[in-house]
UniProtKB/TrEMBL annotation:
Protein name, as recorded: Uncharacterized protein
Superkingdom in the source lineage: Bacteria
Species of origin: Erythrobacter neustonensis
InterPro entries xrefs: Thioredoxin-like_sf (IPR036249)
Length: 67
């Protein structure tokens, strides 16, 4: 069974910011897309960590940009 090498690189790219910043990436995430701030991080702390890009879509879905 063959694998698309580009997809493997995309998975690795999505794991790296998640490990550094305690964030989550969506299934079809690309490096320029926003990431998900998990509910385990309170809003106040997330706003301190990502002051320019914190966005609340729903109470359980908060997006931030990671450079």
């Amino acid at each position: 069974m063959g694998r698309n090498f580009g997809e493997i690189l995309c998975v690795i790219d999505s794991l790296q910011p998640g490990h550094k910043s305690r964030i989550a990436t969506a299934a079809d995430w690309r490096p320029s897309d926003k990431v998900i701030n998990p509910p385990s991080i309170p809003d106040e702390k997330a706003k301190d960590m990502f002051p320019q890009s914190f966005e609340t879509i729903k109470p359980y879905l908060r997006m931030v940009a990671v450079v």
